[in-house]
Design brief:
The chain is mainly alpha-helical and 122 residues long. The protein is 77% helix and 0% strand. The chain has a domain at 1-37.
Length: 122
């Protein structure tokens, strides 16, 4: 176990040296590639304007997302009405979706408790 720790430490030192040597050139290259997204000059007013634009754009997208949700709900209702025609694949997909929702709920609960594994999930 101690040899694994030493090996891990040496890998971490190598990675740290690599980042310190090549990190600034990577950063500059990344900014150069994406300079069309950078606002010049970077002022507080421009940042406030962009944050307001993002907020109100997201707010304006709510009706479209609500409409898509109701369409999806209607299709689920149709599947439920015709459940005798449902294939095994469709039932499996629905079960996996339900399991995924439950798992995300459990992860959210654990994250909400500060990543402690106490309570009724253990």
């Amino acid at each position: 176990m101690a040899s694994k720790l030493v090996q891990l430490q040496s890998k971490a030192v190598q990675a740290s040296k690599f980042v310190s040597k090549h990190g600034s050139s990577y950063f500059k290259e990344l900014l150069e590639k994406n300079k069309q997204y950078v606002q010049d000059p970077p002022t507080i007013e421009k940042c406030n304007l962009l944050s307001k634009q993002l907020f109100y754009t997201r707010l304006a997208s709510i009706p479209g997302r609500t409409e898509a949700f109701w369409k999806e709900l209607d299709s689920v209702k149709q599947l439920w009405k015709n459940k005798q025609d449902m294939k095994v694949e469709d039932a499996g997909i629905a079960a996996l979706f339900g399991l995924e929702c439950f798992c995300w709920f459990c992860v959210g609960e654990i994250a909400g408790r500060g990543f402690t594994f106490t309570g009724y999930y253990v």
